[in-house]
Structure prediction request, 549 residues.
Amino acid sequence: MEGLTMSIWTLGVLIAVALAFDFMNGFHDGANSISTIVATGALTPKQAVLFAAFFNFAALWIFQLKVAATIGKGTVDPKFVDYYVIFGALIGALAWNIITWYYGIPSSSSHALVGGLVGATVAKSGTGDAIIWEGFGKILAFIIISPLVGMLIGGLLMVLVAWIFKNRSQYQAAGFFKYAQLFAAGAYSLGHGGNDAQKTIGIIWLLMITAGMATKDQSTLPMWVVYSCYFAIAWGTYLGGWRIVKTMGTKITKLNSISGSCASMGGAITLGLATLGGIPVSTTHTITGAIIGVGAANDVKAVRWAITGNLFVAWVLTIPASGLIAGVAWWIGTKFL
Amino acid sequence: MFSSLMPQRKEFFQLLAAHSEKVVAGANATLRLINSLGDGKTDLGALVNEVNDHEHAGDQIKAKVIERLHQSFTTPINRDQIHSLIDDLDMTLNVLQSVANAVGMYNIRQSTSEARELASLSADACMRLNRAVAALSDKTRGAETLNLCKEVEEIESKADKIQHKAIAALFQEGANLWNTMRMREFYSLQEAVLDCCQEAAKMIEEILIENS
Prediction:
């Protein structure tokens, strides 16, 4: 393994970049779950971000590292990976995130990371053989499946709630949902932390395998990696959360505490199932799916389908584009690093 | 998709239709009242009571709609639009009641051709309004409902012209001042019925546009 020659300095820088990626993830969308809580006044913005940050971190004690395993050893064959590949993967993902942020495309940083990893690995190996199709195929399939499942569960939850509260006005039901939404948002933050922090854990794990500091055996993965990844996403959530006032909630369809709870819970259940199954999914796309489902149950015309259309662009483009940038970044890395 | 699985609460459409039937009944009774003025045979008091009864029944339906709005998680159309439409329909019936009661209050003993024409236009507009409200739940009848609303608005402009002509006639030289005063008030009330019908028709149009 070429990684054995990796200096501790390079390793440290790559881990720092990976953690920064994780932090940005929390910074960007960790607050998705709390916008309705703040809007409905159940918690103050400060309390809400602490709440979301706590549950992002608490996912550490809930979920096994199955998603990390899929990223770390189930997507590309670790024997093809060296630190140039990880460098390429991180640069590809970061560059694509910046491009999509600039153009306002709701791209998934998770897909960008996977695309970057696969792109850089393929660039290095020169063949598709380095891809572990069982894992990568699962990720590809769930790009489509996770928003659809989110939509289905979110929509059905809304229908269920409408039947349970059939003879009460939404104003009366909102009294109950002021508290229910805290539960839903907590669950969603758990799902977010569980799935997203583990992607970075997976990348660092892969890095440590290539550096010879860990093996495919999970027990060899140092616990500080797990703690620091969960801490990075929680910290990002805390700092980024209260900058984000509107978010998905107001952009795709207007949410109140009731529809917000159904959307968060729909997202939480979908993320929870994906995380238990070890499938890295886009948390943003999943909650978007749930919001669309809830919006469609309330009123199909309330869903702003134009914004939803942007998501499809993101679905199709993210992996090839971040993969391509990662391949180029890998090549540049081999010349200059 | 999911919206078809939600509780449908079709009773709102039924209640709105039931109220608009009371409006039609009230308008027809008012028409009969005005047409019978001065014939000396008809029990005018009974006709006024009939209008009052329809108004009372309308009030009860309106109360039921408001109560249901407070007890429903979902509504088949926008909550505020249901509220506005029942308000407009109820206002139509209230003004019809004012027209009927004005006959006694202003001591109007003879009807005029303009009063009869305005009463007949009111009955016509209310009937069309009733058909539009009844078709509201059926999305396939959107075009037909929209036409009915347009017709109500045309009837209202026709009534405007008749009212202007009637008031101009009242102010001819040598007119009886007392008669001019009471008939001007009476025509204005009659025209106000059509204004209310127009408001309701516009609300229905708004609902149709939002739900098409």
Remarks:
- Chain B has a mean pLDDT of 94.
- The interface with chain A takes residues 1-3, 5-7, 69-74, 210 of chain B (CB under 8 Å).
- The two ends of chain B are 16 Å apart (CA to CA).
